[in-house]
Amino acid sequence: MVTPEQEAASVMRYILDAVGNLRPYYHNIPEEFAVPSVFFPMPEVTAEPDTFLSYSADYQWYVKFFAGTTGEAYGAGMTALTAIQAGRRLVPLLNEAGERTGERLRLNDLSLKAVDDETTGFGTAQLYVSWKSRRPYNDKTSLLMRNFHLYLHDKSEEEKTEPAETAGSAMVGYYLQEQG
Fold first, then answer.
1. Tens of pLDDT along 112-131?
2. Distance between CA atoms of 22 and 120, rounded to whole angstroms?
3. Where are the chain's structural domains?
4. Parallel, antiparallel or unpaired: strands 37-40 and 23-26
């Protein structure tokens, strides 16, 4: 069964592949951050009954793009939105090694807006991404997302305990470290 973390990592990878050379940030943005960049906060999750044997978890994600101007940030967000739409909103799911599983995740309707973000002084755009994930009630692997860290490694390097150093690094794998 696909985990919520695999779904989120697959969406991240798809967006990063679409936008190219943006520095990714996850969960928290450091005080001194690179521009252009893309920020993946923790997704919001709403759970509700689905069938007698399952529930659905609705994920809402507000992915932020930062650039020198709002137009540039909006352009990066539009590139991601267009790539997702061109793929019929079907995101290839990845396994823990970063390889495609052959399964796909269908995203719901997307939206993009320019954001006035006076706190950063940079241009900002926000891409809204959402999907529904169905989970059986009795499956122990179906716990909703808690705090986790996504560690990436480059194609040319071994696994690291920190995100890839270079802005153009392609994510080829991930592993998760849950914090209690």
1. 999 876 666 789 999 999 99
2. 17
3. 4-140
4. parallel
pLDDT for 175 equals 46
Give domain 4-140's CATH superfamily: Phage tail protein-like (3.30.2000.10)
Q: What is the 3-state secondary structure (H, E, C) of the chain?
A: CCCHHHHHHHHHHHHHHHHCCCEEEECCCCCCCCCCEEEECCCEEEEEECCCCEEEEEEEEEEEEEECCHHHHHHHHHHHHHHHHHCCCEEEEECCCCCEEEEEEEECCCEEEEECCCCCCCEEEEEEEEEEEEEECCCHHHCCCCCEEEEEECCCCCCCCCCCCCCCCCCCEEEEEECC
Q: Scanning the structure block, which residue is given the tokens 């692997």?
A: 141
Mean predicted confidence (pLDDT) in 15-34: 90
Mean per-residue pLDDT for 148-157?
52
